[in-house]
Amino acid sequence: MRIAVPREIKNNENRVALTPAGAKEFVKNGHEVFIQRSAGEGSGFSDAAYQYAGAEILPTIEATYETGEMIMKVKEPIAPEYDLIREDQLIFTYFHFASHEPLTKAMINSKAVCLAYETVEKQDRSLPLLVPMSEVAGRMAVQKGANYLEKPLGGRGILLGGVPGTLPAKVLILGGGIVGTQAAWMAAGLGADVTIMDVSLPRMRYLSDVMPKNVKTMMSNEYNIRNFLPSVDLIIGAVLIPGAKAPHLITKDMLREMVPGTVLVDVAVDQGGCIETCQPTTHENPTYTIEGVLHYCVANMPGAVPYTSTLALTNATLPYALELARTGWQEACIRFPELKSGLNIIRGDVVYEAVANTFDLPYVPVSYYLNHIS
């Protein structure tokens, strides 16, 4: 198979979908790899490194899309890429369709096969291709939150861990999954007073057992959230419903209950955000303020640490990508049920129910394609 990796063109997205080591594995297995010129430079991987691994360098994004049977990316295609995607081409990337209707309709019109990293789901409900970036984003959320709590950047002027004789900052984390857990570890390590809210008692029992003493758990509901808001300094939104829009746990009217200079970091922004006032921002212009509350809603947070992120992502995606290349997407999705759940759009049909429901689109069960079309 011909695997092609375009350079990411989303604002300040420096990651790349494949490392030179990953390219070498494809070549060893008899596949052809094509990398757009300078696609890996933002992550610290030179064109020469890819060529040494056996990949061919292509001069333009147009040539890259034209050549590849499978396109591997990090972020969803953006408008300039829509017309480059062709029928039956396999696109393997993060899509987050439920938060972006124009992208969804563009991929329907392209009649490509869209396999989304974020909905690849194992039988135990874990999300193996979302986990590495969730780990990065959860840890970064605390770094960024601590930074923006500084007065010159718009925050209250609070040191996250405090010092002897002063209280540490209060951190509220909405969601006890991978992002929330990683954020809690980081915030606790810096000495903050941390509370995780979740709706799962078994998950909260687990977190209570493994977290340090400065991390507490509480049932997530509107009453508890509202009671917390007047005293909290940093809120991290870490709620995920695979393939669907995140629920709004903090509404616009709740902002008035917070002290001016409170910082909100919504890691769920890719799925529409769990804070109603969340709007996607970029690393170039990462924040805005509403009702005196500073919002940090960068949609590609791990792109700020591209070397770490690219290595972590390739470690997770490469085994699946090799199987897709070896057997084709249909056979691979039959052999690996978690890949089957990653299929969102096939040849113009929406085959992921949560996406169809979000935009009131016709839904076609993915089994139709795996059982009836060769």
TrEMBL record:
Pfam families referenced in this protein's UniProt entry, alphabetically: AlaDh_PNT_C, AlaDh_PNT_N
Q: What is this protein called?
A: Alanine dehydrogenase
User: Where is the Alanine dehydrogenase/pyridine nucleotide transhydrogenase N-terminal domain positioned along the sequence?
Assistant: 4-137
Question: What's a GO cellular component annotated to this UniProt protein?
Answer: plasma membrane
* PANTHER family noted in UniProt: ALANINE DEHYDROGENASE
**Entries under CDD domains matching the protein:** L-AlaDH
GO BP annotation list: L-alanine catabolic process
Against InterPro entries, the record matches this protein to:
Ala_DH (IPR008141), Ala_DH/PNT_CS2 (IPR008143), AlaDH/PNT_N (IPR007886), AlaDH/PNT_NAD(H)-bd (IPR007698), NAD(P)-bd_dom_sf (IPR036291)
Q: Which residues form the Alanine dehydrogenase/pyridine nucleotide transhydrogenase NAD(H)-binding domain?
A: 149-297
For this protein, the record's NCBIfam families field holds: alaDH
- Record keywords: Ubl conjugation included? no
Q: What is its EC number?
A: 1.4.1.1
Organism expressing this protein natively: Cyclobacterium lianum
Please give the Gene Ontology molecular function terms for this protein: alanine dehydrogenase activity; metal ion binding; nucleotide binding
Protein family (similarity comment): Belongs to the AlaDH/PNT family.
Residues annotated as binding NAD(+) are S134, D198, R203, S220, V239, L240, V267, A268, V269, D270, V298, A299, N300, M301
Q: What cofactor requirement does the entry state?
A: Mg(2+)
Q: Which residues form the active site?
A: H96, D270
Q: Where does substrate bind?
A: R15, K75
UniProtKB keywords: Magnesium, Metal-binding, NAD, Nucleotide-binding, Oxidoreductase
Record note on cofactor: Binds 1 Mg(2+) ion per subunit.
Q: Does the keyword field hold Secreted?
A: no
Positions annotated to bind Mg(2+): E323
